[in-house]
From TrEMBL:
The lineage of its organism: Bacteria, Bacillati, Actinomycetota, Actinomycetes, Kitasatosporales. The keyword Nucleotide-binding applies. Residues 42-300 form the Proline dehydrogenase domain. It is an enzyme of class 1 (oxidoreductase). InterPro entries: FAD-linked_oxidoreductase-like (IPR029041), PRODH_bac_arc (IPR008219), Proline_DH_dom (IPR002872), Proline_oxidase (IPR015659). Keywords: FAD, Flavoprotein, Nucleotide-binding, Oxidoreductase, Proline metabolism. It catalyses: L-proline + a quinone = (S)-1-pyrroline-5-carboxylate + a quinol + H(+). Gene3D superfamilies: 3.20.20.220. It comes from Streptomyces spiramenti. This is proline dehydrogenase. Its EC number is 1.5.5.2. Pathway: Amino-acid degradation; L-proline degradation into L-glutamate; L-glutamate from L-proline: step 1/2.
Amino acid sequence: MLGPVLLAAARSDGLRRVVASAPVTRPVVDRFVAGETLDSALAAVRSLTDRRLEVTLDHLGEDVTDASEALRARDAYLALAEALAAEGLGERAEMSVKLSAFGQALPGGHEIAHNNVLPVVEAAAAAGTTVTLDMEDHTTVDSTLAVLADLRAKFPQTGAVLQSYLYRTEDDCAALAVAGSRVRLVKGAYREPADVAYQDKHQVDRAYVRCLKTLMAGGGYPMIGSHDPRLVAITEALAARFGRKPGEYEFQMLYGIREAEQHRLAEAGHRMRVYVPYGTDWYGYFMRRLAERPANLAFFARSLVSR
Ligand code: FAD
């Protein structure tokens, strides 16, 4: 029951101010976020890549309400691409972007987001890496997939994210299970209504497996974005069934979550990519992580009480 409350709170500006200013918040946030600066993110990346992990970096930010904020988001990613090139990290580190940070919700937002993300995708290619478009709430899916299709015409390695909780996703998976495409499959992290999304966890899991089969059987590059041990095991079984070797698909997990499992998979020879968020605008991301797991909230609450 707490999950929907926390997801609603994730979009409350009032609560954002309270949570962000509470002195105890920082250590809890640090578990999920690799610092506020590019330097702190790069330090986290180095320690992960030193241990055979790959990364995708997310400069935190979403739901911008004016065009200048969207340009700041674009510039942060351009600086990131430059840093990845300078550090020679292009092969191990890619970038994840949220189009709502690039202005997607503004009037004329589809074009604004497209125009802002294009130079980032170009800079990524110049740095020897690529970009994956994160997926946000269901109202953005058509726009995000349309931007993806356009970017893929010139940069086919641009990645998509599909969320198994949406009824539409099985069709989207089938459409994207084609040679050259890169699809991160996740369960979905937003609060969605019953007319567009499964509400029952088991139905979300079953839909995930159906989409996973489509992606593993298809010609694209599946990216399994989940910490769920059953889905990890099912992926390994499907890889054997469809003759995919490690490197012909990859696992992805979030920074700070199931770290031992991340290392276990990498040491077993799998390609394992860690999603590394950094920056000052961590509130929405942080609240979604609390919503996914009540134990995280208990951890947060204990740190409040123990002061
Ligand atoms: P769950 O059934 O939620 O969790 C399985 C197990 O994983 C839990 O029992 C627990 O052990 C562990 N676990 C899961 N979440 C947490 C947590 N927060 N803290 C501690 N332990 C946890 N969602 C989107 O909507 N759009 C995106 O673009 C997107 N990108 C993602 C990128 C990556 C790399 C990953 C891993 C997830 C992404 N998500 C995204 C989030 C995703 O939709 C889920 O909300 C999240 O991954 C939790 O689902 P799960 O598959 O891990 O399974």
